[in-house]
Amino acid sequence: MSRRLDQLLANLGYCSRREARAWIGAGRIDVAGQTADDPGQKSHPAAVRVDGEPLDHPDGLLLLMNKPTGLVCSHDAREGPGVYSLLPSRWQRRNPQVTTVGRLDKDTSGLLLLTDRSALVHRLTSPKHKVPKVYHATLEADLPAHAGEIFARGTLRLKGETEPCAPAELRVLGPREAELTLTEGRYHQVRRMFGAVGCEVVTLHRARFGALGLGGLAPGQWRELPLDTFD
Length: 231
Ligand code: URA
What we know:
Layout lengths: L2 E2 H7 L5 H9 L3 E3 L2 E2 L6 E2 L4 E3 L2 E2 L7 E6 L21 H4 L6 E2 L7 E8 L2 H8 L7 E7 L7 H7 L15 E6 L2 E6 L6 H8 L4 E9 L2 E2 L8 E3 L7
Parallel strand pairs: 9-13
Antiparallel strand pairs: 1-4, 2-3, 2-5, 5-6, 7-9, 7-15, 8-9, 10-12, 10-13, 11-12, 13-14
Helix pairs in contact: 1-2
Bound molecules: uracil (URA).
């Protein structure tokens, strides 16, 4: 889709619209091989070059991050340092914004998706789609023998909620260590589910999101995914 040049550059995080006018005046922008001179020129992103370089991901971004603990999934600086601070600064200025697909708590690590495609966020977080997410937890107390059965039944009602949790699969790895697979994403759901069977979570890490794993990404690292990954 063609867009005004100044808007295109501003939306992709290069500069403000005012700065875009200066960049165009300085001859830094080409469209289809011609030096641009009109900030309002409707241009197709694939035809635009900045200082001779193609535009940075004009069709959108989809990223897989290994979220470290200590960062929040929020754009609000009052909530503390955010996962967005790990991304290139140009990506932090994009509009539409890059946002997380659902959230992980500040104290949770692991697989986090980020994208500027809002349709993808809606699709992947919609309860309709039931994307399985696998969490690895260590616990403060021994798991009771009946925990797996309680989670699998689909009748567990968390405090303050009317709808019971959807059936979830527990894989016990040790007396105080387990993997829990959820197909929904309620607020603090894993911590609250373990809390409901008397086990406070000590550490929590998301290992998988649908078919995706971390594949050796170190905490704080991210990699790009093709935009059609979930098509
Ligand atoms: N459940 C939680 O309790 N915390 C998370 O970060 C994710 C799922």
